[in-house]
Give the backbone structure.
Amino acid sequence: MSSALTIAGSDPTGGAGLQADLQVFAACQLQGSAVVTALTVQDSAKVHRVLPVFPSVVLDQLRVLLADTPPAAAKLGMLATDDVARSVQLGLADLPAETPIVVDPVLAASDGSSLLESRAERVLLELVGRSALVTPNLVEAERLTGIDVSTRSGCERAAREFVEAIGAQAVLVKGGHRAGAPDDLLALREGASIQYEWLEGERFEGGPVHGTGCALSAAITAHLARKKGLRESVQAGRLLVAEGIRDALSIGSGARRLALPGILP
């Protein structure tokens, strides 16, 4: 069985973070492994506290794991601090260059709590430069590129920045925070040019759903691990998340939880 690796923070609710990633891997019939970058104290309503893992422990987790069971694809989520991000960067040096990496550039929680210190953004961008795909939402895309993404043309300029200047092979700019249709932009390098594809989205009633970004990047990673193409992996990930939002469940007092096939009814 192919395997996929998530390098992310822990969410004790199971709705996001590495717990959600592992559930998505299982729903995609894939063996999952995980390296913990941070512990959080949170419930379904908010993040109360973030406790980064010792950077040396993060590095040791990665090196021991990759030496024994290298994954077919890897996903980066919450990195928390500059030191943790640098440890992840060091550890990934042991990952074969052909192994696809998906970067979900987690900067903050839905409630606004910071999940990455600002001085770590430089290392994050270096990791993005190694990625097969980076999946920023509109806020993350604007902050990391400095480009206004309120319009479609602005999104395309930011996408070009991720690919041409930062070095990602492809970018999926998620449109869920946009007023109106939540269309996503997929931009990928094809030879000497960049191809832009707008992917139609659907907005569902019922309020916010926790962990959609984590689930999307994890599902794309899972399909890449199964040797699917990038476009096919992105479409499969978007479908899983759309169905999960449509059938989302109320668990706890805060945001609803994504429903996953084979995991939640």
Observations:
- The chain has a mean pLDDT of 91.
- The radius of gyration is 17 Å.
